[in-house]
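fyi for ur records
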Amino acid sequence: MAGEAEVQVSHFLDEHGVGAFQIKLILWSILIALIDGYDIGAIAFAAPSLIKEWHVAPKELGLVLSASNIGVLFGSQIFGWIGDNYGRKTALIATNLLFGVFTFAAAYAIDLTQLTWLRFIAGLGIGGVIPNVVAINAESAPRNLRATLAIIAVGTVPMGGALAGFASAALVPTYGWQILFQIGGIVPVVIALAAIIGLPESIKYMTLHESQRSKMVALLAAIRPDYQVPPNARFVIEDEKQFPSSNPTYLFHDGLAVITPLTWLMFALNLMGYFFLISWTPTLMGAAHVSPGTAALTLCWWLQRHRFLAIAILFVIAVPIVGSIGFAGLTSPTALLVATFFAGALVLGIQSGINVVGAMIYPTSLRANGSGWQLGIGRLGAIIGPFMGALFVGLPVQQLYIWSALPFAAGAVVTFLIHVLNQRRLSQHPELQKGQ
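which gave:
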């Protein structure tokens, strides 16, 4: 409407920079991501105890190890849609309650069938965390730090997996494998209840929903006390082209018809290798495998600047290092630790990076849903990974890890192709560049 006052939200965030609001949000996100990572990894560290206590063969654990990933396959899309339609905060509270309750129940499972179903339902909630954590941080940050703040948040998911390893080493010998799921159930429920009061909502989500207007005005005033919102002003995200809804068909518009399915394949390939490593290394090596969760955090600037090209390079480097793990294990414990450290750093760096840069190609109206579809379809690779481990577990360990390096080689090719196609898309549609 002519003469109507307008508040450009992206410009407002750029002017303000990083302040107390973003710091509060990132601290909440790190807390949520840590327990999400813990619950993802807990089953792998419980596996050796399950084999002994329930007298099952390692290959029988394939379905249990994949069950939560099957849940993520659906949960990431469900809660991505919820996040885009009802708010990132609402989705994150719901996901923590869901996977907290069913993870706690898993501590009292009496056989593999019960444990499999409980892990599947918990996986529905686990799947909704990353898409909404990425969205809530990217949408509340200044333009030059959108990817960086989101990477910091999701980069702590692997640290949560490492915490499961520490808890396993410290507590399982005394309290049994059940303690891993008791901790993983109680903590997210407490976080969810506290988040009802303490967790902020995404600024850009509120921008798109008139029902959030009063909260938006209060938040802008809290961020900049000297700023006065003009009466009846219209809030806009001036650097993004929005779509009428979060309908998944829009994920293929504006030059994304090929890029979107390729990002799904990129996720699937990395997760195939990643979940083979995280699910089977503790069992195969007979000791807790703690990968360095700080990998993506040290790569923030590079990933922010080079996006898909940086990830393609990480895929290339991962191939020989992952393939060397089996040979290192036959050489010496020191060689094994070095190989697994660097393999973990690369694989987790790739995963944290693609969690974020994949979501950057979508606008606010689609971001959580787009990220949810990437993570959900990509979880097919995560499901296949542990099953491949169960299938190949009888091979010599050096051959097994060579096979596990192949998805990373394919991932390098796919990610470089995405880089080329996305650069061409942005050159043809320069109006989309600021949104990324």
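Residues 283-293 have pLDDT under 50 and may be disordered. thats all i got for now
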